[in-house]
Amino acid sequence: MPASASAPAPAATSAHKPRTWPSPQTAAPAQTPSLVWARASRRNASPHLALCMVAPVLAFLELDDVYRAGACCRSWYAAAFAWRKDRLRAHGVPRRLRWRYWESCARVDWLFSGTTVEAEFERCLDGRCGLGALDATGTEGEILRDVTRTFPRDDFFSARSRAGQDMLADVLRATAVFAPGVNYCQGMNYVAAVMLLACRDEGVPRPEARAFGLLAALVCNLDMRDLWRPGVPQLKLRIFQFDRLLRELQPSLSSHFRSVGLTPDFFASQWFLTLLSINLPRHVLVRVWDSLLTDGWKTVFRVGIHLLRLLEPKLKDMTLEDLGLLFKTPDGPVAASGLPPAAATAGSPASAAVDEWVRRAVSLKGVSTRALVELESQYVAHILAQQLSDNPDIHGAVAFVDRRVAALVREEISRLDGPVRADVGVLRGRIEHTERALREARDVFVEEAREFIEVQADIEELQEAKRAVLDQIRSLSELGDAHEDDFAVLQAKVESVEAQLVEEGARFGGVLWRTAQAQVDLEEALERKKVFSEQLVQIVQQNEAMRTRRMKSLFRELNAGGGGAPTSAFASGSGSASTSASGAGGAADG
Fold it and tell me: Are 533 and 435 in contact (CB under 8 A)?
């Protein structure tokens, strides 16, 4: 082969040609960027090289193309992931892609892989749609009351326009049916309302079904189940984590709160239950949710602490009454922080100020997933120490609780709570059924009592009319100048009144029996409700006592084992739990 056949083209010639990306068939393997990075990886090159190589390309791509590029190889995925997080923090997801991005992060398609969101939504509604389809009691009664109080100043949810309220009621009721262990919790209404508004703004078809899919994915895939299920058990953990982070990152402000008697649950509970949906203006909230669905819970902690950091000079001069007035209004802290309003055009000073505010909030240093996990272990030890502080036999045992042992303790407590949750659900269903029967019995009793009073009044009127006719007959007899015809007319009146009295008497007997029966049914319904309520309270109390005894037993074994995992506490668990327990014990011994 001639030498010129394999030689590269002269630089002068290639300079006048448009530069094209080499195709996989013609380019040498060493020329492709993926193989260049693969060879650099094998030489233990810095991972920053991938970002330097790929980031200039990503800057010219749309967000969905970035996802496709990240699927090419591991290095491109790392670069695309890092670029995506920086892009989200700086500018947020483009509006036209936001809903698809939220559904992708929440894994909505995976949750409804066997069906479609629309089909599952219709199945959960079961043909009952709108606000008027809700019952006045039980879970639907709570939804009915909260829907009418959700964003009443927004035209979409106002009483004049029932469309938004009907959609919101359908979303919440379908979610309660889809996730029966959660049912409904106050706070879900605001989260679902923001989803509906986002669907409306982006022109998403079937907004109520798509909002239902995302809300169900939050419950099932993104760790919202324990926060929203009855009793909000995860809320205390989040408040504990927030309090500890505030002490670490803003010690002066945390000390001031403690000195005036203000605890974080006074203002932070609403932040977690509503995911900041009623505390931030919507143009900022959707940007925060972009990061929330990407980074998880730490976004809520970061935004909350960032907000308090901005307000710290003002908050440190306030008394408890002033702080109460400030935090009483949901958007009070945000208004006091000087957050810029929504900008009409991108790139304007107001838009840049909003971008900077969100970037600083969601990038706050000191709040990480690892820190939240460690604080969760501290919370378990803190709660167990409180519950077991009255037992001198296990004093100091909680000092040996590490993350793995704490996870085993939580698993054991969850195993104990499983049957109780089932029993509580059954009893709640019986109580709701009894309440409906009680309402029906009360309505029947009221109706029968009303008829009883009417019949009694009719009988008294007829008796009064009979007495009046008899008095006329007696007067005519005393005068002696009455004609036979007058006596006949009066006697006919007496007979007619007596016939009516007989009919009303028979009716009175039937009404009296039905009224008595309705009263018996009402009293029986009241008694059944009382019995079921007492059983519910008894089951909950027995479960609390069982949990306390079990935790004492677990920590006696922890104390006897020198800080290792209990030897027999989790004998009924899986093999993986036993392996974790052994590792935890070895770590403590070392």
Answer: no
